[in-house]
């Protein structure tokens, strides 16, 4: 398969989800890292960087959810999931909800002009979100055969 | 007279004993032959089908067993057969009634491919 053949790349079986997933993971983890830095240094520029990273993560997680659910419905014909596949779906949904919750907090506080007065639980929530995302990614990597010879 | 009857009896017993054994033996052989001709196994392990290609006669039932730690499926490229998601140690069987080539893949890992060639 030619990697620059757009048609083959777009119509590749089940490839979109495993490609797109990298965007929200990277953006969210970067956003959380900048948010911790902003909290420690009290620099508004870092808080702004954190906000835009979380914003990117919140929007890119939508096509990731859509392609994941499509892969389930089309490739597996919506079979009742169990085991690792079911865990991956549940943790994936939990990750998306947590990303949107963190994004909501950021947007809510930014609108009020309170970027420097974040509630303390926000960082705890972001940490939990990163852990759930990491677990989801680990299961996804296991399913896709990242550790195998595939 | 008595002697000839005894010989005849011995001959009949011998015929039943050895003849029966021979019949039994031939039926065992036939059954064994039938078994090898009508069943084949493909193991799914380490993200691959093993053997990746098998040739079987018409009427053979091929059984795929997932020996991998993660789920896989067995899906015919031509939509002839399709398994559910197979967890570790789960099996899927399909009987091939028509000769031809049957390429298949795992729908979770499309790079995993195999082929069943069915001959007359």
What does this structure look like?
The complex is a heterodimer of chains A (150) and B (120). Chain A is mainly α. Chain A has 6 helices and no strands. In chain A, helix 3 (22-41) packs antiparallel against helix 4 (44-75) and helix 4 packs antiparallel against helix 5. The radius of gyration of chain A is 17 Å and the shape is elongated. Chain A starts with 5 loop residues before the first helix and ends in a 6-residue tail after the last helix. In chain B, the strands form 2 sheets. Chain B has a 4-stranded mixed sheet with strand order 2-1-4-6. In chain B, strands 3-8-7-5 form a 4-stranded mixed sheet, with no helix packed on it. Chain B is an alpha/beta fold. Chain B has 1 helix and 8 strands; from the N terminus they run αββββββββ. Chain B has a domain at 38-119: Cupredoxins -  blue copper proteins (Immunoglobulin-like). At the A-B interface, helix 5 and helix 6 of A face loops of B.
Summarize the structure.
The complex is a heterodimer of chains A (150) and B (120). Chain A is mostly helical.
Low-confidence stretches of chain A are none
- The gross shape of chain A turns out to be elongated
Proportion of β residues of chain B?
25-35%
Instruction: Report the portion of residues of chain A in β strands.
Output: under 5%
Helicity level of chain A: over 70%
**What is the CATH-assigned architecture of the domain at 38-119 in chain B?**
Sandwich
Assign the CATH class of chain A: Mainly Alpha
Mean pLDDT of chain B: 80
């Amino acid at each position: 398969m030619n990697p620059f053949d757009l048609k083959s790349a777009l119509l590749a079986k089940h490839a979109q989800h495993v490609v797109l997933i990298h965007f929200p993971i990277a953006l969210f983890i970067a956003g959380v890292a900048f948010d911790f830095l902003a909290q420690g240094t009290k620099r508004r520029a870092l808080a702004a960087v954190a906000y835009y990273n979380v914003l990117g993560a919140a929007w890119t997680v939508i096509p990731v959810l859509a392609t994941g659910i499509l892969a389930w419905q089309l490739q597996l014909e919506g079979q009742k999931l169990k085991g690792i596949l079911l865990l991956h779906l549940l943790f994936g949904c939990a990750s998306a909800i947590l990303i949107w919750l963190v994004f909501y907090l950021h947007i809510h506080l930014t609108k009020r002009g309170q970027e420097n007065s974040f509630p303390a639980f926000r960082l705890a929530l972001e940490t939990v979100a990163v852990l759930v995302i990491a677990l989801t990614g680990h299961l996804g990597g296991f399913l896709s055969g990242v550790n195998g010879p595939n | 007279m008595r002697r000839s009857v005894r010989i005849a009896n011995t001959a009949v017993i011998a015929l039943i004993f050895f003849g029966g054994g021979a019949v039994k033996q031939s039926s065992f052989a036939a059954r064994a032959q039938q078994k090898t001709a009508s069943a084949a196994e493909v193991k799914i392990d380490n993200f691959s089908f093993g053997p990746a290609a098998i040739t079987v006669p018409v009427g053979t039932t091929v059984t795929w067993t997932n020996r991998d730690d993660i789920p896989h499926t067995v899906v015919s490229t031509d939509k002839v057969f399709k398994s559910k998601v197979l967890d570790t140690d789960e099996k899927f069987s399909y009987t091939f009634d028509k000769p031809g080539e049957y390429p298949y893949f795992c729908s979770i890992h499309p790079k995993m491919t195999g082929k069943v060639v069915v001959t007359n």
